[in-house]
């Protein structure tokens, strides 16, 4: 029970850190390109993992096939996902991107149910629906206000990146459980960096120390350390102990966290829409985490028995 509790806590902290990553990415995006930024972020994260790698390396020999799986997971989550996310923000505003990012629990639930990794429950449906509603409520008006004619490209890139994250969340759990979340995260980032090296050279023509402003360097260091090594370690550790849908549900906090950072760092105003959207998201997380699932199941059982004479939903 203690591990489950700390897994929920780790998922929440990772989501809060992801909100900071959105702000940092938007800040440095004008000084570099999406591919290079993904590479620099992974390199900083790998350096952070260096001192602890001997302590997290599995004692038993790992087959080459397992390294192949870790490489595929790394390319999905630490190469394709950050590239698609960074690139999408070149075509769409942050608000529209936030709504696209909020589809991660929906896509994860669909993938998990389709491949038999999780059961479809009413609590999960309500939790995912409430979390997405909260994001849409906060960013919906701004999301539809798009002046660029290429917004469909941005939407497609964001949804592609989210789909990669959903695949990683669903199919990466078994690998995380076998070899440890920290080791898998570190090695996945190594494979992702190796995959990004030729892409960066092809895109920019050179791979080396980037020329960034002082603020740009701070943003890259933050993305690689706090929102890289630490954030993804917490996320993958939570993913080892929690269902994939429950873990990614916390990520719906990240867009609202980014807006809250704007309130405290830039002096923006807290609005009723922001507070209401946050309440939707928090309620969804409470239901998805199981804190309110018992009440949800009782209500569903009562209404299904009245309408159909039997229970229609599986208990969480």
What does this structure look like?
The structure is a single chain. The protein has 316 residues and is mostly helical. It has one domain (2-308). The chain is 78% helix and 0% strand. It has 15 helices and no strands. It has helices at residues 2-28, 34-49, 53-56, 64-88, 94-101, 104-114, 122-143, 151-171, 173-179, 181-204, 214-241, 244-249, 253-266, 272-289, 293-308. The longest helix has 28 residues, at 214-241. It is globular. The two termini are 16 Å apart. The model has no long low-confidence stretch (mean pLDDT 83).
Write a brief structural summary.
This protein has 316 residues and is an all-alpha fold. The protein is built from 15 helices and no strands. The longest helix is centred in the last third of the chain and has 28 residues, at 214-241.
Instruction: Evaluate the radius of gyration.
Output: 20 Å
Describe the main β-sheet briefly: none
Low-confidence stretches: none
Nearest-integer average pLDDT: 83
- SS summary, helix count: 15
- How many β-strand runs? 0
Helix content: over 70%
Please give a handful of descriptors for the protein shown.
single chain, 316 residues, mainly alpha
Task: Please describe the topology of this protein.
Elements: H1 2-28, H2 34-49, H3 53-56, H4 64-88, H5 94-101, H6 104-114, H7 122-143, H8 151-171, H9 173-179, H10 181-204, H11 214-241, H12 244-249, H13 253-266, H14 272-289, H15 293-308
Helix pairs in contact: 1-11, 1-13, 2-4, 2-10, 2-11, 4-8, 4-10, 5-7, 5-8, 6-8, 7-14, 9-10, 9-11, 10-11
